[in-house]
Amino acid sequence: MNITIIIGWVLAFGLTIFGIMNGGQFSYFVDIPSLAITVGGTLGGLIASFPLSTLKSLPVLFKIAFIPPKYDPQKYIDEICEYARIARSQGILTLEDSANKAKDPFMKKSLLLLVDANDTEKIREMLEEAISFTDDRHAANCAFFEKGAALAPAFGMLGTLVGLVNMLKTMAENPDNLGSAMATALITTFYGSLLANVIFAPIDSALKNANANEILCMQIICQGAMAIASGFNPTLIREKLEFMIADKDLKKSEGGGATSE
To answer: Residue 29: phi, psi to the nearest 5?
Structure first.
């Protein structure tokens, strides 16, 4: 569970409500037409901007944001070093059994490419392309929430303009209602800012963090596979791959097997 996003939302909404109630009333900030313009406009803009396939994947993206897959770089390094020991003692062809038992699909494909005795540079090119394609797919998914963070304030401002126009049109007939009308007009800006900075932006960041963790482990697999193909000593492979991990994460992994951030 991504506990930080929950804590952040509790703090953001809780302190915002506290600020509203300190000298004001919550009902002042509830305006259905403003919500319709801001939320409806943002959702409409998002639906118009992305294909149906992206919209269908939203439940999966929300799940990844709140319950991100666990990728432990140290675990991948340990596995690669074990495969290197097998390859050095029994030959690369014996890695086929290990590949079939590998749980990570990218690890399995990498080992099978080694077993097939493909050209080393060709294997590197294929693995790096797979990493790049994965990163691009994830970036396309993150783009939905990036777009939402941009559209929400825009529709908030649009709602404010609508409210100001309506206010100015009726100002001559009912000048005593000017303050109330101005407050209503500004609420849409509040809604837009809240949607962008508390809803869309944190989810976007959570997805990018999950992507970064997965890409790091894929890069470790790629570098490890190339080292095995080159016949490197398992100890040297471990030292090479551990340079890819931050010291604080490496120490935690060595000490208690904790997953890196």
So the answer is: -105, 15
Q: List, for residues 105-134, the tens digit of each pLDDT value.
A: 999 999 999 888 678 888 899 999 999 999
| Phi, psi dihedrals of residue 2, rounded to the nearest 5° | -80, 85
pTM: 0.84
Asked whether the beta carbons of 184 and 31 are under 8 A apart, the reply is yes
